Amino acid sequence: MDNYEIIEKYFPGLADIRVKRFERLQYLYSCWNERVNVVSRKDIEHLYTRHILHSLSIARLFTFMPGADILDVGTGGGFPVVPLAIMFPETNFVAIDSTGKKIMVLENVIKSLELTNIVAKQERAENISAKFDFVIGRAVTNLSDFVGWTGKNIKRETLHDVPNGIICLKGGDLSKEIHDTVKKYSLSPEQIIEYHISDFFDESFFETKKILYLKSIN
Fold it and tell me: Which end of the chain has the least Cβ crowding within 10 Å, N or C?
């Protein structure tokens, strides 16, 4: 099963407009991927599992509040930002990537879906000065570098039941990344929490997939 039904499996009872937007993603990304390679050729047939549901694993742990500000760094063609913006229509998202073609695809997806809660920018994280409740990223770089780029962008005041911070989707053994980040930034080990996505989703694709949550270092 790799279609909208896999979203319904884990997020049943979504409002009609969310369902329509999720259902449209396959068509949009299949069309754009023929022009700009934003999803690997082997993965486009598994878009719902490997990209959309993977992005939505964040929503199994975090409920972004109305009015919250989220920065997606290295968004590519829009993951995880597009699925999350569909899921949380009252949350404000900024999505950045240094590659103009990918941002162009994202802008067109945003327009086609009539998403008013995403702003897409061709920009590098180091150049972003605005503050956000959370910074998110999907397989962008090692955690230590990601914290170096974005640690400055975390708001002190929170709207949520958990501290603001950094949320990364990654895979494999992350013990060295976590150790190096704790050491480099003199963090408490308790500030970084590792979640196994296989605890939320049954599909074999998620067996090695993780979410790292770094509580604010400000």
Answer: N
